Amino acid sequence: MNEMSPTALTGAPLGADSFLHRYEGLRQRLPGARLPWVAALRERAAESFRAKGFPTRRDEAWKYTDLAPLLALGFAEPLSSVDDDAALPPSQGGAARAVFVDGRFRADLSALDDLPYRVGSVAEALPRLDGALGRLAQPSEQPLAALNAMLFEDGLVVRVPPGVAGGVLELVSMASGGERPTALHPRHLIRIEDGASLTLIETTTGPEGARYLQAPVFEIEVAEGGRLNHARLQTESRAAFNLSTVYAAVAGGGTYDSFVLNAGGRLVRNEIHTALQGPKAACHLNGAQLLADGQHADTTTVIDHAAPDCPSRQTYKTVLAGRSRGVFQGKIHVHQIAQRTDGYQMNQALLLSPEAEVDSKPQLEIYADDVKCSHGATVGALDADQLFYLRARGIPAEAARRMLVRAFLQEAVEAVEDPAIQAALDRTLQAWWQAEDREAA
Amino acid sequence: MPAVTETIDTVQSVTESQYKWGFSTDIEMDMAPKGLNEDIVRFISAKKNEPQWLLDWRLRAFAAWQAMEEPRWAMVSFPPIDYQDAYYYAAPKQKVAPKSLDEVDPELLRTYEKLGIPLKEQAVLAGVEGAGESPAIAVDAVFDSVSVATTFKDRLEKEGIIFCPISEAVQNHPELVQRYLGTVVPQSDNYFAALNSAVFTDGSFVYIPKGVRCPMELSTYFRINAKSTGQFERTLIIADERSQVSYLEGCTAPMRDENQLHAAVVELVALEDATIKYSTVQNWYPGDAEGRGGIYNFVTKRAACRGARSKVSWTQVETGSAITWKYPSCILQGEDSVGEFYSVAITNNRQQADTGTKMIHLGARTKSTIVSKGISAGRGQNTYRGLVRIGPKASGARNFTQCDSLLIGDQCGAHTVPYIENRNMTAKVEHEATTSRIAEDQLFYCRQRGLTQEEAVGLIVNGFCREVLKELPMEFAVEAQKLLQISLEGSVG
């Protein structure tokens, strides 16, 4: 075995143990320690996490994603070092902004005045959240939900009242980095009431080179006729981990739209569970991933069609360079009651390097007969004919390549109407090319 | 005939005709004691007069099996199997080995006649006269644990083709058997393959010499007859360089209210420029409408396309069995080798199927095509599960997969679980899957032209499966179409 393992050097526990160790040390100081229901929730979660630990590749849902690089590290409590907003990512154009640094709400960096809905910090609102927090994320079923329930320190809580158009709200979750790897476990609760709407632009980021883990859990409820547009820009440090899980429950006529742009991180997993619970509930899950050497990105979605007449649409695109690996697992589950379901899923990967690897598992599980469900998956390199066509018209090879990659991503981005998000994508894409150019040079 | 009587007759014929191969043959059997242990493995090996190396091989498999756990990952559910509560060897009693067909027990011959299987070297399969001039078919008939007859052996021998029970091949061609057995499906490949390796009793052996094109279809017909037995046959087909063969496999079993296990292993080896076409019409007893009885069909089928430009094509029509759990696969080692998988799987009543294929692309420019049609009716559960893996050296590899599912009724399920793993940027992989029910307008169109609901569904289902059925040899295509109709009886309306 490895005789010079970090444990031997520092004595600090690694992997799952480092998280359990932190829980034992922090349990009296974590938010809600005096609220019996919170303490009980954390204890249940700890019990489950102690028994199961992190998932391994033997778990079917983790067949293609190995958490070994994460387990080799020991994670510590972050010591926040951000004092002003200079270090924050640029605004996406929204007026309202909630900023979390190292998992904790920072009122001094946020702008949340005069909003037509209630928004605040989970840690502060906790006494009022009994019954709401933990309703969708069941620690017993998902190890990552258990990890988060055990250690959540704060998060965003939003409730948009019936009929209110909430506009754009930005959510920034930032790691400040530090010598030792740090771990953040935000728990965000979002509730869109009947006929209400909100666009939530979420940015998760951290200083380049920093080793940290962002492991947020979202609990999202969209009531009848409500609409949440959830855009997520993930630009983590290339040494960071992001394991995020979204639980969204959508009532009749409601819509949950999600777009994830992932262009960073050493190991990133975006897991989205959407339950369409009332007639004509809808969801659109889209995503684009830009991977460079040494990165592993996993998108795992489950859409639960639990009511009739619900449409669901998914388009995920991945571009892979260097020695990177892209994973897509998407499951559409149609219950017997969910007649007239219309489910569509497309997952495409573009390989730019001979060392890249793509694994894809689109999955249909259907128990109703009057349904229209389909999925498609393609993996391949840039089309030589298309390249030739552009070259023949005098476009330099590199520009032609960029044009084709941008076109490849377009379909996943089209669904996002917000110009701020479109612009963010183009910025991210440009930065990705620049990084690629540097690596090539 | 008065309308009422006619109706009663029709209803009766529908309910009774559902599984017309469900009779059992009363014949004196030679059985091993119930249960499974090393002694049984030795008993089987001794019965077959096997050389020491094969006994050792079996014992290694048995040891591996004992250390393994029954897999439970498939989307099928069944009560625990008591592996000690079955007979692992059952053979019709025969005083001396028959030298020709005339010496075979007439009761057995009658059984195969009833099943429509030509053991009398006649030209065509029973029931398909009028299908045009059909070529001859050589048949190996496996009854429970042993092969009872093989036809057209002499004619095939003239071409240098070996087509015989595998137990006979062990005696007469040990070098070939030893060289290839277990090289495609190793003894400890999986739980059921390990079990099979320990206790396999018979099956077919085929060797096609270099440059020979097999002059007729080869066929094995499997019949489970005895009670409380399992069938564990082993088939090994070797197509040497530039040879070609088309092989058919059929199977039936009596109607019993116990579940019987069928755990076969099929290994195909295709050398340079060789082509193997393997067709299956699987019609084991599916159990009754309430899900009582039926065969558990847990089979490992795999082909190694070892030589450059070799080709293996699997075609399967799965209508029977209480549970079907198998993935006929191709390991595409040779450059430019080709793998194909065409499948129709039907689940009606309480049948369950978890079937598909694996295409493992190792060599450059290897190509694979997967066309899978799943039909669920009644309370059936039908899963397509497949893997397409492109290795780093498989430059220019190509895969196309099409999986379609059809649902008939709102109590059944259709599932698709494809795995795609690509490690070569020059490879191109495409996968498409759809799930839907029979379109109302198609049904209306047929009904309007005077077809009954059942006929209309039959017609549409046949159309849905056409892409696969056209891959079957003529005789099987006719049989398969009839089977589809019968399998879906009672599922409509």
So how many helices of chain B?
A: 11
| Low-pLDDT segments of chain A | 1-9
Number of domains of chain A: 1
Strand content of chain B: 25-35%
Low-confidence stretches of chain B: 1-17, 123-134
Strand order of the largest sheet of chain B: 4-3-7-9-12-14-17-20-22-24
- Rg of chain B is 22 Å
Q: Largest beta sheet of chain B, briefly?
A: 10 strands, mixed
* First and last CA, distance of chain A: 38 Å
Oligomeric state as shown: heterodimer
Q: Quick one: how many beta strands of chain B?
A: 24
GO biological process, one term (chain B): iron-sulfur cluster assembly
Pfam families (chain B): SUFBD_core, SufBD_N
Domain SUF system FeS cluster assembly SufBD core (chain B): 222-464
Domain SUF system FeS cluster assembly SufBD N-terminal (chain B): 158-214
Describe the protein's architecture and organization.
Chain A is 23% helix and 36% strand. Chain A contains 9 helices and 21 strands. Chain A is globular, with a radius of gyration of 21 Å. By secondary structure, chain B is α/β, with parallel strands linked by helices. Chain B has one domain. In chain B, the strands form 3 sheets. Chain B has a 10-stranded mixed beta sheet, with helices on one face. The A-B interface holds A 60, 336, 339, 349, 351-354, 356-381 and B 73, 392, 405, 407-437. Strand 21 (372-380) of chain A pairs antiparallel with strand 24 (428-437) of chain B.
